[in-house]
Amino acid sequence: GLPGRSRYEVVPNFIPDDLVLDDAVPHPDGPMVFVGDLSQDKGVDVLLEAYRNLGDVPHLLLAGRELPDTSLDLPERVELLGSLDHEAVVELMRTASVVVVPSIVPDCCPTVVLEAMAAGRPVVAASSGGIVDLVEHRITGLLVPPNDPAALADALQSVLSDADMAAAMGRRGLDRVHRFTASAVVGRIETLYEEVVASDSAKA
Question: N or C: which end of the chain has fewer CB within 10 A?
Answer without folding.
Answer: N
